[in-house]
Amino acid sequence: TIFRTAALALLFSAAPVAIGVQAQAQSQAQSQDGVTWLDTIAVIGTRTEVPVQDKPASVSVLDEEQLEKKAPESIAELLRDVPGIQVVDSTAPGTKRLSIRGESSRRVTVLVDGQEITDHTTFGTPILVDPANVERIEVLRGPASVLHGAKAIGGVVNIVTKKGADKPVQAEIGGTYYSGSDGWQGWAAASGTVGNFDYRFSGSLDDHDDRRVPRGQYTPSGRLDRTTFSGDNLSAHLGYRFGEADNHYIAFKASQNRLSSEAWTDPDILTGTTTDFYLDLPKRDLRKYGLYYDGAEISDIVRRVHVDAFYQTVDRLFLNGATVAPLPGRTIAFDTTSDDVNVNWGGTVQADLQFHPDHYTVVGLQYLADELKADKTTQTIQTGFAPFPIVTFQESSDESSIHSFSAFAQNEWSFADDFKLTTGARYYN
Fold first, then answer.
1. Residue 233 lies in a domain
2. Domain containing residue 104
3. For 132-179, what is each residue's pLDDT tens digit?
4. Beta-strand pair 155-161/108-112
5. Own/partner long-range contacts of 238-246 (Cβ < 8 Å, ≥24 apart)
6. Does residue 391 lie in a domain region?
7. Domain count, the chain
8. What's the per-residue H, E or C state across the chain?
């Protein structure tokens, strides 16, 4: 058993005291022909809802209207055209990841409704949220470790899922066909608002065959072998608004994302003594439960309070194998099965304070427990070394955990009509 605990430290190296000066527009709204156009609102970058133009970092937002104009197979495809973002398509179809400003996907923090999604692989976190269940996507380019943790070196992606519709009952159903993989994707949802209560239930299915590619060295048939994948998503949202001014809101969200994928092998790696190689991901199941509370305009000083907590599990099954021929007539075949479970839970408490009209301060505490258990079995078959095949088995089990606590603070000082100074710090244990 392996236990790892982060050292007590001030994150001045990964998240130094951040100081930024930002030119501000004179108004958060623009009037034209008697019509007031409101600026796009985002939470990312400041952990509070302010117009994008007032953010001290480079932020892009894809709202619901923009999302509805596209028919992507994944969230990553939705963000392909956002400046500074590169889509990283790994060998396992359906597990696309994001790189921001050239940083590795492992250095990009992925949030769903403000809560971090983790994935302990060398590739980074895949985004498997159903695109039809997304209200907006916020992307911050560049370091954001003060408010979003040490991992946010390349940037942060925050996926905000939908709540209940304005009507008492609203139903949605849709589907998409993808000729490039003879694949399809279908979804359905029911949502609404009754009094102060809102709800949403949704589900989706997708299934894709081998990809179509030009005939050539990789395939004589025009189909790329071992590029099939399938998955399904289920989600539920229940919310309730209360208070004399309806300024308090609580919500419960639950989601399940399941994926099964094969993995294409580049024939160029089959060189020298390696004659065969494969990698499969028959199971990647994520289940998540989250509780949220938001209070606005609590007092003249306490402008906003946010509390959230979550519990999440990721079950993964990897199959990996290779065959080598060190000598003529002799082969060694390796087949490895890795079954691991990643369990996360944690929460955040945050308060937005305004002690002076020119200062807006965000303070908060964050806790994250991250536990991983991996069981691995390797079978080795050697032929040609004896009159009969030599078969051996090796089993191993590893456990690791990390429990982290952090406190953060950020102050925004409006020291002139058109300028703001933003400073922040994060303590990490």
1. yes
2. 9-428
3. 899 999 998 888 777 887 778 888 999 999 999 999 999 999 998 988
4. parallel
5. 238/197, 238/198, 238/199, 239/163, 239/164, 239/197, 239/198, 239/199, 240/196, 240/197, 240/198, 241/196, 241/198, 242/196, 243/295, 245/297, 246/196
6. yes
7. 1
8. CCCCCCCCEECCCCCCCEEEEEECCCCCEEEECCEEEECCEECCCCCCCEEHHHCCCEEEEECHHHHHCCCCCCHHHHCCCCCCEEEECCCCCCCCEEEECCCCHHHEEEEECCEEECCCCCCCCCCCCCHHHEEEEEEEECCCHHHHCCCCCCEEEEEEECCCCCCCCEEEEEEEEECCCCEEEEEEEEEEEECCEEEEEEEEEEEECCEECCCCCCCCCCEECCCCEEEEEEEEEEEEEECCCCCEEEEEEEEEEEEEECCCCCHHHCCCCEEEEEEEEEEEEEEEEEEEEEEECCCCCEEEEEEEEEEEEEEEEEEEEEEEEEECCEEEEEEEEEEEEEEEEEEEEEEEEEEECCEEEEEEEEEEEEEEEEEEEEEEEEECCCCCCEEEEEEEEEEEEEEEEEEEEEEEEEEECCEEEEEEEEEEC
Six-digit token pair at 199? 């709800």
Residue 3 domain-assigned?
no
- pLDDT per residue as tens digits for the range 22-79: 333 333 444 444 444 446 666 766 777 776 666 667 888 888 888 877 767 788 888 8
Within-domain flag for 401? yes
Look at the block and give the residue holding tokens 């244990």: 429
Distance CA 317, CA 423 (A): 44
